[in-house]
Amino acid sequence: MKFPSKFNRYSDSSLKYIVKVLKKLQEGDLTIRQFRADKEMNKIPIDEFIDILDCLYALKKIEILKGGILHYVS
Question: Which residues contact 10 (CB under 8 A, 6 or more apart)?
């Protein structure tokens, strides 16, 4: 996961994707396959996507339901 620093701009960091991922999940529950099928979400590199999901899960902002469904926790 890339963090902003004096060497990495915010626009080059993984944090810029977190807001997009949360907004998409606020619209409703999705499987990872449905999530990646979205054209906007498919632009996120897969390694950063996994890091973002790990980060959001650790922060208890998402949970994984039975069947691999991603759920936004408000």
Answer: 4, 16
